[in-house]
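Key idea: predict the complex, not the pieces.
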Amino acid sequence: MKGWMGKSRILLLFSSLMLFLAGCGDPQLSALQPKGEGADVIYDLMMLSVIIMVFVGVVVMAIYFFVLIRFRQKKDHEDYIPKQVEGNKFLELLWTVVPIILLVVLAVPTVQKTFMLADTTPAEDKKEDAITIEVTGKQYWWHYNYKGQEVQTSQDLYIPTGERVYLKLTAGDVIHSFWVPSVSGKMDTNPGKNENEMFLHAYEEGVYYGKCAEFCGPSHSLMDFKVIAVSPEEFDQWAEDMKNVNTDATPESQSAQEGKELFKNKNCIACHAIGSSPAAVGPNLTAFGDRVQIAGILDNNKENLIQWLQHPEEVKPGNKMTGKYGNTEAEVPLTDDEASKIADYLLQLKPSEITPEDAQ
Amino acid sequence: MSTAYAQKNGFFAGLWDYLTTVDHKKIAILYLIAGGFFFLVGGIEAMLIRIQLIQPDNEFVSAGLYNQLLTMHGTTMIFLAAMPLIFTLMNIAVPLQIGARDVAFPFLNSLGFWLFFFGGVLLNCSWFMGGAPDAGWTAYAPLSTTSPGHGVDFYVMGLQISGAGTLIGGINFLVTIINMRAPGMTYMRMPLFTWSSLVTSVLILFAFPALTVGLFLMMFDRLFGANFFDPSMGGNHVIWEHLFWIFGHPEVYILVLPLFGLFSDIISTFSKKRLFGYSAMVFATVLIGFLGFMVWAHHMFTTGLGPVANSIFAIATMAIAVPTGIKIFNWLFTMWGGSIRMTVPMLWTVAFIPSFTLGGFGGVMLAAAAADYQYHDTYFVVAHFHYVIVGGVVFGLFAGLTYWWPKMFGTMLNEKMGKLAFWPFFVGFHLTFFIQHFLGLMGMPRRYWKFQPDQGLEIGNLVSTLGAFLMAIGTIIFLINVVMTTMKGEKVSGDPWDARTLEWSIPSPPPFYNFTQTPLVRGLDALWVEKRHGNGKMTPAEPLGDIHMPNNSFIPFMMSLGLFIAGFGFIYQVDDSSFLILAIAGMAITLLSMFVRSVKDDLGYHIHKEDLEKGAGSE
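Result:
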């Protein structure tokens, strides 16, 4: 590792690291490909720290390899006694002061950005129409209440692009953490009165993957959700559609009509609301047919929905729906026919013209 | 007072000897066996975790079992493997390095071990009694307080008992190092391992009570219906986070500081140079210890403490990089100009430097509060703390065990086998954990039982699991080495490494009274000073005389056993109040043992001068 060989190898390492950092993972999930203000700001800070670290790392490694190669005990020199050096004031001061300077370089933007990301008061001129959403994490799904808009949804969070959307975060049972890596960093949702705030600001339209990041029970790893960023016009349209949803509408197909009856008779309605109802204890199903995925993890099709309705415990262990409609683990809670009809009913719930496809 | 000293033979006599021993060297072996066993248990848990994550949507273990595995892996490795193995090293080396005949409180030393042991056994009993704890090793409320079954109860009781043992052990070493140094062994002549053990003991003294308090509150929440952490009843779960991390952050320094000291000793020995910047190293150790207490909330950047608290804790955390950097450079410059022998302990030490440096880089990155909003609770954090804890603590334990093996057993671990164990472990370690930094940034949160296909996380997880297999291979080779060395039993001299500190001035393994005559210390690296300026032997600081030794005692075992039994009683009285009998009986055993200890005169015995002279002749 001496001379130009060593230098070029380090350069190679450095540049390949940068390449690796710049383009890896799924662009809808990766924090390394920021698609929103929060993620962007953090990415810059991350890169600054990486540059500082690589600089320090190169210095340390250069000394390290030099020492290990140069000062190995030579053959026939077993009796050689090196000079017993006590220390060196200048050197020791040097490697105290230089790191302090480097840390200050990192600390200043860190503090700046920490305050910037914590600033969740809407700017004066936008105060009137800034969108505020109450987000509640529950085992193992997410509830959203658009403040002052009478719109409530679950799992898929629609936001407009190009502006900050403010979130007020709480939890219904245990601690969860709301994380959309490619748009913004995460924030915990605490049960009780510890409300947290953050903002989302997506630069471009897209369906971004969200994850629960705080360990919350058996299905912690299955508590996925989506953030659907659409243009402001589309968003207004969506909100309007959601507000005016007709919950009494009769489904077109016979099977879905029967499904609607079953939904009532099997007492699904006791937990799940369709339309805007703050009392619901389970996910709001108003726009279920437009969901990107069922339960956050299954492809949205009838087969999967039947599987979920009949064997919720197999799909999401420890979820709160298991056993809620008279089933034990052994018996199937709904017959194939019943599940199929309810599925038909749920899948035709598409109150809005704006769907995740509009965000692609 | 008895004056007889008789050696009994046979397996049961030997077993009885170990059950009752108060000799710090035998207690070190007890810690080694128990800690080593738990290390393997934790390792198996780790392998099961990595096998589950070898491919997306894997069904190898169920969600519930996975959560138990990850909880027990963390808890076991920290409390039942790393802590006791560090106590192995402290027990074997600290009294010898300061020229003491024993620790300050031999009885407490034994009590500390048995408390740790029974706490660990209690915790692991949960596997056979309806399921292990499943709320993560951090056991955040309300997930932990609402977790069904008795898993978390075992966590609370097991750690409470075992933590008491650690606290007792820490206090013992604190007093030992302050009070029992040989003449001439001033603070600024203490070997760095002893120095860092001293700082660690102080950290234990201040950190473990926070854990004790937290566990007590949780015990009352879970077992007696209190509501300290229940927000709906006016409690506050964030208090658990604070209490846990006020203990938990210093804990990582408790683990790694003694090994910093050890690395200093090893580097200096195998470079044939005195430590570069000794006083700066001491200062850095103390400073790291102090700052370790000031930064706990960096585990809580996303909890919602607000930007002011986050900024303060971010800067305080970054500050730790300075003394740590001082250490890294001083180690490099100790080697600079030296004559480096690449023995197995040195190999682990040399491997530690870049590994731990990378861990430190991850630490500084995590300290940037705003950026932590992306890293927190992801595989980036998993990668970081494994770099620190495996790269620092586990590497250090391998180095330390190999280094002091001859002192403990009088035999030397095979060097070739040692290197053969090192390489797969080292390569496997980086393979496993380096890529996890990227997994985290690519959107993989930690504690995930499954990851979804087609989200770009497949390759990273696969590589990581393959690396874990390599680490397992390295560990197995190390074990084979231990077995083979023990079977061969080739004796070595008292100073096989040509080392510099006091423990190498006496035979291997040392006689049970350590030093026939207390040595006189004439400088830093006491033995080296005598090798260079004397006749290679320590000058005695006292004339040959009778040595006073403490008696063996079975009481520590009984006291701990009582708490172990009571633990079951407390846990199961929730289901059936008749189990309170077990709790009362267990507490009675403990209190009765304490009573016996208090009223019985136990003055120890003397080894007479004449016997010492005979003994000295035969060596």
